[in-house]
Amino acid sequence: EEIKTPEEKPAEQAPPAQEEIKPLTKEEVVKIARSQFDGSVDDVEFISTDDGGYYNVDMENEEDEATLQIHALTGEIITITYDD
Fold this sequence. Notes:
The mean pLDDT is 87. This protein has a 4-stranded antiparallel beta sheet, with helices on one face. 18% of the residues lie in helices and 35% in strands. The protein has 2 helices and 4 strands. It has helices spanning 17-20, 26-36; strands at residues 40-47, 54-60, 65-71, 77-83.
């Protein structure tokens, strides 16, 4: 019994995926940060890396200060560092 594979169609010319994914804006990053840490935003800094970069968001409230590292493309929270 012969198994036939569908003929491969030539790939359509698509722009590179990296151009389709835009880094999050500072406003979007602040919303993500606020969903994890209730406080005011002191500073938002973009750090460029090979995989799209990340934002450091410095925040504080009455009890704590924290720096949230948020991936600039996915919005994933990489780390939350609390300052004493």
